[in-house]
Amino acid sequence: MDSRRTAARLIVPLSYQPSVASATAYAPVNIALIKYWGKRTIPLHLPLTDSFSITIDAGTTTTVTQSTLSDTVSLNGTPLDPSSPFYLRLTTFLDLVRPHPAFRFAITTQNDIPTAAGLASSASGFAALVLALNRFFSWNLSTQQLSCLARLGSGSACRSIQAGFSHWKRGTRADGLDSYAEKVPAEWPELAFGILLLSSKQKTIGSSDAMRRTVDTSPLFPLWASCVERDLEQLLKSLEGNDFDLFGRTIEQNALTMHATMHASWPPIVYWQPETLSALHAIFKARADGLPLYATMDAGPNVKLFFQKNHTEEVVKLFLDIQLTKLTLH
Ligand code: DP6
């Protein structure tokens, strides 16, 4: 048995069967404020550092039923070809939780993420799948167990089990049972968010491979863990007092540090396109002119902006194409 299947079996009950004909669940997209970049155990998606995120008002709804001959996956109304990467990724995850080897699933999944928003749907996708499976089999798993199980699909999925601010503690156990995300209660009704869709160019390297290359080859990677520790401390402090400048500075510096670390890998990993850099310079200039506006970027060329609601008009004037998206704090 591989380590992922062993880990899944530590989480789900030993014996189970469907308790309903079908089960549906929703999970939100999460935006990393302090990034997860680098694994200590690759197959279990166990991170080397903690990370921290906030969910937005967009996500994935997934329905699970039993199928007869083979697994079927429908994504946004279109049946997926069994050789497509998403089908394979999903069914490999389903292998971890089949009640018996011949059990087959029918999965219907719908993303309500703004079209081509450049937001990864794998985190909300695996979280919604795990929540639906929990209902389908009546596992009655705790939030922590659900988070651990979602992590086996994709690391960042563990932060999409609950809405709001989420702190993924890296944990130290070899089986990963102490590596899950916990909700952090914080009030910040003024916080606002928007996405700049800057390029639809295909990514040259996926985040799992990019993380591995960064850990293996970037001379800056040894510094990453201490940067995360400092940033996490600062971020928690900023949430306590709704200190927006501390919040913004912390998340932007964390994102730039992650990118600098991957830029120094070999071969280099540069997700930025010319439009990314132009947007960053526009943000730096706006800030120099007095607008409190900060950016974060993930494994892609698009830029995500944080600001406070009272500055929405100025932000929209600066970036006419911004996709404003509500944050979900509860
Ligand atoms: C840059 O969770 O997609 O978005 O665990 O290999 O599936 P795997 O990686 P994934 O990585 C997300 C990386 C990131 C930062 C983050 O979300 O924290």
Task: Tell me what you see in this structure.
Strands 1, 4, 5, 6, 7, 8, 9 and 14 form an eight-stranded mixed beta sheet that branches. Strands 11-12-10-13 form a four-stranded antiparallel beta sheet. A two-stranded antiparallel sheet has the order 2-3. It has nine helices and 14 strands. Helices cover 36% and strands 23% of the residues. The mean pLDDT is 96. It is globular. It is α+β, with helices and mostly antiparallel strands. Bound molecules: ligand DP6. The site of ligand DP6 has 14 residues, from helix 5.
Write the layout of secondary structure elements.
Elements: H1 3-11, E1 22-34, E2 39-41, E3 46-47, E4 51-67, E5 72-75, E6 78-79, H2 85-94, E7 104-111, H3 122-136, H4 143-153, E8 165-168, E9 181-184, E10 191-196, H5 207-217, H6 221-241, H7 244-263, H8 274-288, E11 294-296, E12 303-308, H9 312-318, E13 323-324, E14 327-328
Parallel strand pairs: 5-7
Antiparallel strand pairs: 1-4, 2-3, 4-7, 4-8, 4-14, 5-6, 8-9, 10-12, 10-13, 11-12
Helix pairs in contact: 1-4, 3-4, 6-7
Bound molecules: ligand DP6.
Ligand DP6 is lined by residues 32, 35-36, 45, 51, 120, 122, 154-156, 207-208, 298-299.
